[in-house]
Write a structure and sequence with these properties.
The chain has 164 residues and is mainly alpha-helical. It has one domain. Helices cover 56% and strands 7% of the residues. It has eight helices and three strands; from the N terminus they run H-H-E-H-H-H-E-E-H-H-H. A hairpin with a 3-residue loop joins strand 2 and strand 3. Helix 2 crosses helix 6 and helix 2 packs parallel to helix 7. The chain is elongated, with a radius of gyration of 21 Å. The model has no long low-confidence stretch (mean pLDDT 84).
Length: 164
């Protein structure tokens, strides 16, 4: 049902008062923290490069303490019955695209993301900060080194499972 022209006119001609109210922002729209996480993962990865698969794996794992613990168990175990609870995080692609536009990262062959000199500077600043995203930093510092591309692919393909 479409409102009558009189109602529309009354709504548009009235006095409006805008009041600021705190509204939580969805995690996937917090682009600053997304860029920081991508930069931290790349900064701790071999040759400061990682595949989108590795970025999505670690970005999903970093979200909660339980997921961080689960991901470290997957990465540290040679064989495990743990099932990976992995999903593609839409904010990762947005963060990489914005980081590329800001010349923090570059994308090669469509699937490898590399930290550029400006990104290295940001990584070093985040490292020096200490209190910035401490839990995430501790997890990424441990996990990014353990998460070789081969191991992440194996986890994503569930090659490591022992089928009883």
């Amino acid at each position: 049902m479409t409102p009558s022209p009189e109602i529309i006119q009354a709504l548009l001609s009235g006095d409006f008062k805008v009041t600021r109210r705190p509204v939580p922002v969805a995690g996937d729209l917090r682009i600053n923290s997304g860029i920081a996480i991508v930069v931290m993962i790349l900064g701790r990865s071999r040759q400061k490069k990682a595949s989108y698969q590795k970025l999505h794996f670690l970005a999903h794992a970093v979200r909660t303490p339980e997921m961080r613990k689960h991901a470290l168990a997957l990465l540290q175990a040679d064989r495990s019955r743990l099932l990976p609870l992995i999903r593609v995080e839409p904010w990762v692609n947005r963060a990489v695209n914005l980081a590329s536009a800001l010349e923090l990262t570059g994308v090669h062959r469509g699937s490898v993301v590399e930290l550029l000199p400006k990104g290295v500077e940001l990584f070093e600043a985040l490292t020096r900060e200490g209190d910035t995203m401490r839990d995430e930093w501790e997890f990424i510092s441990r996990a990014a080194v353990l998460a070789s591309e081969k191991k992440v692919t194996s986890i994503m393909n569930m090659d490591y499972l022992i089928w009883a």
